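Ticket #4471: structure export looks truncated?
Reporter: QA, pipeline team
Priority: medium

Steps to reproduce: submit the single chain below to the structure queue and open the exported record.
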Amino acid sequence: MNARIDLAQLKQRIACIPAVRPESRASEGRLSTGLPPVDAYLGTAAAPLGAVHEIAGNGGDEEQGAAGAGFLALVLKASVPTGWVVWVTQEGDLYAPGLAAFGLDLRRLILVSARRDAEVCWALEEALRSRSLAAAVAEVGVLSLNATRRLQLAAEQAGIPCFLLRRWRTKELARQQRAQPIAAVTRWRISPQPQPRVSDQATMPELGPVHWRLDLWRCRNAAAASWIMEFDHAEQRVTAFPVPVAAALADRSISPAPAAEPEAERATATLLRFG
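Actual output as written to the record:
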């Protein structure tokens, strides 16, 4: 009963926020990460901002989602620098100072707590349909294709980006959900990378720049791509460079061997006769 009262009050508060004018909707914009090489690639794919975008970790970060949350903070800062952002959580372990370190203004956040994945999807869809927000974010584990289709439709109609930060509590759940098809325009995999050793005198490497591998695993109208990203907290500088990948394999038919020349045939016959 208390949960229903809280949700009702939240809906009233969101309804009181002035709606965004239609001409300034994010549906006309493009997804941006703040990284020129990545944004140039997304520009060629014309990846819309007002859509569903999935972000997940790799390995152990599939459960914690720390690298994914940091990357998401950079994306929010670059794509929607102003306006309210709803962030739906289940665990209550969102680390605000970490988000602030990546440049996200915490005063813009509206935190919503849910108990199950189904409640997360419901709250996220309600937030998208409010048309008073700049973006909607949800930490979610289990998702169905139909649920993401509803979210994609709501995001397109409202012109609001919907970011799904995937968090899986067990390896089995991660294995089941990792490659499941969902209605997302982009699907990202963020992997922490070891920091390169600059000098033997570096005594506290953990305070140095953050290094991540960004894998654009799926993207509508574009092929998969990867980048190595570096974020310097001290100078608030972020850079990235592409990771070269091998060319895709292609099926090729086996062509018949070319016919032997007459001189070669005569020489072979001579060797067989006198060999």
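Status: closed, not a bug. The export was complete when the record was re-opened. Leaving a note from the reviewer for reference: Strands lie at 52-57, 85-89, 109-113, 135-140, 162-166, 186-192, 210-219, 225-232, 237-242.
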